[in-house]
Design goal:
With 136 residues, this protein is an alpha+beta fold. The chain is built from 5 helices and 6 strands; from the N terminus they run H-H-E-E-E-E-H-H-E-E-H. The protein has a 6-stranded antiparallel sheet. Strand 1 and strand 2 form a beta hairpin. Helix 2 packs across helix 5. The relative contact order is 0.14.
């Protein structure tokens, strides 16, 4: 297992290498592909020992657990925006839990990630506008 000096994962590949169940690993590889396709300019990294994606701030994380895999959209607004579509899934404050045995909701994941890109771009635009206004 490829770990960094702090004992954590050094890459998403290193994280995925620890998944021993081939079906689970294939599903997480697909999640990775969906995220990269929905946010092609995002930087792939490890944060909180989970695969994570940054684009003008943190976009989304994912992680494998015993009974489910989790998607962490790093935004409370996302859960409200997709409230009806997410109603079928168990949720915690920061996570959406997807049971291993259920079909991968590819379209939903794509929409979630694209919405996060929009949120981050809007936040970056507002921050830039605020800076410009404060210099006047």
């Amino acid at each position: 297992m490829e770990q960094n000096k702090a004992g954590g994962f050094s890459s998403v590949d290193a994280y995925l290498a620890t998944i021993t169940d081939s079906k689970q690993k294939a599903l997480l590889e697909r999640v990775r592909t969906i995220i990269k396709k929905a946010a092609p300019e995002a930087e792939e990294t490890i944060s909180y020992q989970m695969p994570a994606y940054k684009y003008h701030g943190m976009l989304v994380y994912f992680a494998a657990w015993k009974n489910h895999w989790g998607l962490y959209p790093a935004s409370a607004a996302i859960k409200e925006t997709f409230k009806e579509e997410l109603a079928a899934y168990k949720q915690t404050k920061g996570a959406i839990q997807f049971p291993w045995g259920e079909p991968l909701p590819e379209g939903l994941i794509t929409r979630l990630v694209k919405k996060r890109v929009e949120e981050n771009l809007e936040a970056a635009r507002l921050k830039t506008a605020k800076k410009a206004n404060s210099k006047k």
